[in-house]
């Protein structure tokens, strides 16, 4: 069995006291109440990298929509937002809130970068992937006019930027179906006119043709 002198024991105790004084408190209470991040804890700045990457890619895809109107929503309640989205859905328009910080980064060095001045504060996109531009913009402007918490800032139609005045003008254009109907009516008008004339005066037409035939016979004789 090893034996220690009193001086050796005193030296060991002093060294242990010196080491303990240099170490931070590691009691259960100190761990539970510590405000600083522990060395092995997760970095808060990297908590949602996948979410940000997902939104970045989604926003770039969203900008490919043919019609986008940028709206600022000021103190819009959840029920009000749901109501606006429901009204727009009937016209084939979708409404989505946007995280402008991520959106501004996403559009840098793209053809949509000129939208940046509109992307500050609480912003949402009203966009359509199928409805025609005049119909979609008309529905968006009507919903915004009914709800004063939704302010139209501008947008894009196809690959062109549009301010508020541009959007108002586009909303007044006839739809593609209307243009087709008018074009068909214009092309069909001469044919219908001839058809109506033939139906109204068949006897006169027969007499005219008969007289023309007699004239030709007289010339040949």
Describe the structure.
- InterPro entries: Ribosomal_uL10, Ribosomal_uL10-like_sf, Ribosomal_uL10_bac_type.
- This is Ribosomal protein L10.
- Keywords: Ribonucleoprotein, Ribosomal protein.
- The protein has 221 residues and is of the alpha+beta class.
- It has a domain at 50-174: Alpha-Beta Plaits (2-Layer Sandwich).
- The protein has helices at 6-22, 28-33, 49-62, 78-89, 100-106, 133-146, 164-171, 176-200, 202-220; strands at residues 67-73, 94-98, 123-128, 150-157, 160-162.
- The chain has a five-stranded antiparallel beta sheet with strand order 2-3-1-4-5.
- Helix 3 packs across helix 5 (100-106) and helix 6 (133-146) packs across helix 7 (164-171).
- It is elongated, with a radius of gyration of 39 Å.
- Residues 25-42 have low confidence and may be disordered.
Which features characterize this protein?
221 residues; alpha+beta; Alpha-Beta Plaits; 9 helices; 55% helix; 13% strand; elongated
């Amino acid at each position: 069995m090893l034996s220690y002198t009193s001086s050796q024991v005193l030296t060991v105790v002093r060294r242990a006291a010196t080491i303990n004084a240099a170490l931070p408190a590691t009691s259960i209470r100190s761990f539970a109440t510590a405000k600083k991040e522990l060395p092995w804890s997760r970095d808060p700045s990297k908590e949602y990298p996948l979410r940000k990457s997902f939104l970045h890619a989604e926003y770039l895809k969203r900008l490919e929509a043919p019609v986008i109107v940028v709206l600022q929503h000021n103190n819009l309640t959840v029920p009000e937002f749901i109501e606006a989205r429901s009204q727009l859905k009937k016209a084939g328009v979708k409404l989505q809130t946007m995280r402008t910080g991520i959106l501004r980064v996403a559009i840098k060095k793209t053809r949509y970068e000129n939208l940046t001045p509109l992307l500050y504060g609480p912003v949402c996109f009203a966009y359509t992937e199928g409805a025609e531009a005049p119909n979609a913009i008309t529905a968006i402007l009507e919903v915004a006019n009914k709800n004063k918490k939704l302010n139209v800032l501008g947008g894009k139609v196809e690959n062109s930027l549009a301010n508020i005045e541009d959007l108002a003008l586009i909303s007044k254009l006839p739809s593609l179906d209307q243009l087709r109907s008018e074009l068909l009516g214009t092309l069909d008008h001469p044919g219908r006119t001839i058809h109506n004339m033939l139906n109204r005066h068949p006897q006169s037409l027969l007499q005219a043709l008969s007289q023309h035939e007699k004239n030709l016979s007289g010339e040949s004789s």
